Amino acid sequence: MTDVMKQLQAADPARRANLESVDAATFAALREEITVTGTQLYVAAAQTANGRTPSATPPTTRRMRLGRRGAIAAGLAGVLAGGGVAYAAIQAYFGADTEGVTCMTAWKDSALEGLHVDASGPWLTGDAIADCTTMLAEAGLPPVEDPVVFEHDGTVYVAPADQAPHWIDPIASAAGPAVDAATIELRSSLADRIDGGNGTCRSVDEAAAWAQSELDRLGLADWTVNAVGTPSADHPCSSLSAEEVGTVVIAPSIEPDALYHSPDVDPVVDDLRRDIAGECLPVEQARSVVDEALASLEHHWPTTTVVDESAQCARADLAVGGSLQVTVYGPTSVG
Fold this sequence. Notes:
The structure is a single chain. By secondary structure, the protein is an alpha/beta fold. The chain contains 10 helices and 10 strands. The strands form 3 sheets. It has a 4-stranded mixed β-sheet, covered by helices on one side. The radius of gyration is 20 Å and the shape is globular.
């Protein structure tokens, strides 16, 4: 956590703001503005480090996706003086769901502040112990011995049972907030850059129909689709999110391939659109395609394979958020 973010956390302006007055349209607009602002700050910093003067008007190619946490941290660092309701809205945006799991082979209280953790990342399957085992292995560490799972301040932790804080209320490994398999897949699909929610330019009406079809496919009958904002010539497309459990929010946006443009990620998106979305593969073959496409990247979250025998062909959901995460769903055989 940066010094700036620590200052914001200590000030905690969320306590003084009326979050009920911040509607879904505001959250959607804030998300897009932070994505772009974070991108501009990132590139400006890179230009300065290289001895160049940052340009005042960034071209489209500068809309590099930093990820939800990265972009918001960068955006907040640039608008620290703004504080107030904007920061409170961002805090609620984070707090509306659990983004992932933190894994500790030996407990340290600093982990509650996101410091000195052994491994952490987004949900892979929704099973905290299984996901921690995968993430720790990626970090070259063994699984947590005699693990206990607990939730604190919107984050799920896995730690040795005999070292965890005395005040915890243990939960089942797959019982963290909003991490059931269908919800994970929905969020993955909405964020997908290949052919999902961020895969093409859909109007708000088209996105609403597509989102409802995803809810139907995943059996999320209690969920609703809420379209907010007014489309315009500058925002003819849509963005989709499910930060609050039970609601898919759709708002006007720019072309996804422009908003989420990244020189490193775009070739991967193109490869997977061609070799998975454009073909009909069994799940393991599709996983091999993904592994090959990701091989050139310096970092990405562990790829997850989920067997879905109800599917005719494999599909891959590629989400960008702090890093790259791909989940492959599909049958063991096709044809």
